[in-house]
Amino acid sequence: MAEDGSPDALNGLGQALWWLKDVDGAIEVRTRAYAGLRSDGRFGEAVKIAVWLAREYRGVYRNDAVADGWLARARSVADRADGCAARGWVSVAAAEAAHDVDRATGLLRDAVMLAGRYDDADLEIVALARLGVLEVAAGAVDGGLEHLDESMAAATAGEGRDPQSVGEACCALMEAVDLLGDAERVGRWADAVEGFRRTYDLPWPNARGQLSPVALSALSAFCGSCCAGIYLVTGRLVEAEEELTAAIGSLENDRVHPRCVHPVIQLAELRVLQGRLEEAGALLSAVEDLPESARPLSVLDMAQGFPGRAADRLRVRIDALRSREVAAFPLWLLLVDAEIARGDLLAAERTAEEASRIASGTGSFRHTAEAAFAAAQTAAARGSESANLMLREAAQLLAEAHLPLQACRARLAYARALAECDRGTAVSEARAALTAFERMGASSDADAAAAFLRELGVKGRTGPKKAGLLSDREREVLRLVAEGLTNAEIAKRLHISTKTAGHHVSNILTKLCLRSRTEAAAYAVVNLPREPAGT
Predict the structure, then answer these.
(1) What pLDDT is recorded for position 532?
(2) Largest Cα span, the chain
(3) I need a surface site. Which of 138, 279, 296, 497 has the fewest CB within 10 A?
(4) CA atoms of 450 and 463, how far apart (whole Å)
């Protein structure tokens, strides 16, 4: 660019900066590129950059005013662009700004049509991907998945010229996976994505052979939340914390913003599971204005004993998502818990029926299992004779759906239902659930299981948790916590970064099911051997 300040040089530099996570720099340089292209009469290319700017301001900075301004500019310049798919790019950005699903779907279909007419493969990849996710969220699952698969086929075949369009296709696939719980679909595309990555030497991790979403989660330069969300629902809490901590650190280091669910929101929900409610509240206070914070805020309300507040909050958010019923499915499930907790069993039954209806429409086995548990919970709350069988079957379904956390919750609910008629089985089921909760690090659920066992006159926990769960470095950090050192002091002592020290402390608390540094210090005094003198 120093030799040639042309719009092409500016645009190329801007794209490189984006991949290097310098979003501010990319926006500044590509804004200059837009001005140059427009001045040169290259209106179609200028439109594409204007649309890119609109989408960045909306998706990364959540600045709708500036985004709308760039979208309006793109629309005006598109009127002067002949023989290209400029209007299709405008339609993509307009669809993302639209609140009405039917309007958004229509705009994306127009974009796909224009992409085909003018042979713009990048537009086709992006428009099909966004259309697929929107259709899945709205309940048109088969059509949505078909469009997503078509987008991925075009992306991994190298039809597009812009690698960002490939990243968008992969991120859209991850969104659909998160909505439906169909992680296997990611695995089916892993080899194709890896082949494309190697061919173009793209800065993505090796994805070959990965059935887990870990490798593919980094296909977006700025997102680490997708696979963490899957870890949360599948009870892999340690992995979820590692992924979320890394994602938050990356966002802070690179000074960028998340493009989907903020990892802080998911970390807050994890903290509730770990029984660290004050930390969860502190985390959510910084992001409570984001729409997606409704669920973790409601989870926290429930944990603090405010089910009515949780129910009210959930209903407001569900109403906002009324045209995206699949996206609202997790909220309906939590609303069942809230209605039961506040004693409105009729509302709980109606809510469980709505969850079952959505699950039937998606055909997702995970959704079917979760809806079955919701129905079983309402039956148990009513004292139905069929509740015991329903709870047992729900636990089996949840286990088969690879949802161990929910399966253990169902087993504990089953144990409660059996308490009066079959105490032995109740004790056995509750103990099994307690062991699994502790292994996963779900402290709040483990405490509930232990309390129930005490109600039955049975000792729940049989002894201290083992320090053998910790790595050598984590035991070293734990000793320093016991000495009263802060994360910064631990970092200095061990010659590591403060963030790495904090990451180790979080892992220690999770693995040992402890709630604070004070508990960790007390644990270390009792359970860790003293270091030999002179070490």
Answers:
(1) 47
(2) 84
(3) 497
(4) 12
CA–CA separation, 23 and 50 (whole Å): 15
CA distance 258 to 294: 17
Which DSSP category does 20 fall into?
A: T
Q: What angle do CA 351, 357, 360 make, to 5 degrees?
A: 145
If phi > 0 it is left, if psi is from -120 to 50 it is alpha, else beta; for residue 305 that is: left
User: Which of 496, 504, 502 has its CA nearest to residue 475?
Assistant: 504
Neighbours of 495 (CB within 10 A): 6
- DSSP symbols for 189-214: HHHHHHHHHHHHT-S----TT--SSH
Residue 315's identity, in one-letter code, is R
Residue 56, SS3 per DSSP? helix
**What is the structure's pLDDT at 496?**
83
Distance, in Å, from the CA atom of 95 to the CA atom of 112, rounded to the nearest integer, reads 12
Q: How far is CA 467 from CA 34, 372, 470, 520, in A?
A: 58, 38, 6, 11
Flag the least confident range among 35-39, 124-128, 467-471, 512-516: 467-471
**Mean pLDDT, rounded, of the chain:** 86
Query: What pLDDT is stored for residue 256 in this prediction?
Result: 64
Give 343's contacts (C-beta < 8 A, 6+ positions apart). none
Output the pLDDT for position 219. Answer: 41
The Cα 369–Cα 35 span in angstroms is 54
Q: What is the DSSP string of 416-476?
A: HHHTTT-HHHHHHHHHHHHHHHHHHT-HHHHHHHHHHHHHTT-----SPPPGGGS-HHHHH
Confirm if 345 and 377 have CB atoms less than 8 A apart: no
Beta carbons of 338 and 311 less than 8 angstroms apart: yes
Amino acid at 497: S
| Ramachandran angles phi, psi of 462, nearest 5° | -95, -5
This prediction has a pTM of: 0.78
Q: What integer pLDDT is reported at residue 408 of this predicted model?
A: 94
pLDDT of residue 40: 95
- The Cα 9–Cα 257 span in angstroms is 26
Whole-angstrom distance, CA of residue 7 vs CA of residue 35 = 8
pLDDT digits (tens, 9 = 90+) for 475-501: 889 989 988 898 889 988 887 888 888
Each residue's pLDDT tens digit, 317-338:
999 999 999 999 999 999 999 9
- C-alpha dist (Å) from residue 513 to 212, 275, 442, 469, 490: 25, 9, 7, 11, 21
Query: In this structure, what token pair is assigned to residue 332?
Result: 């309906």
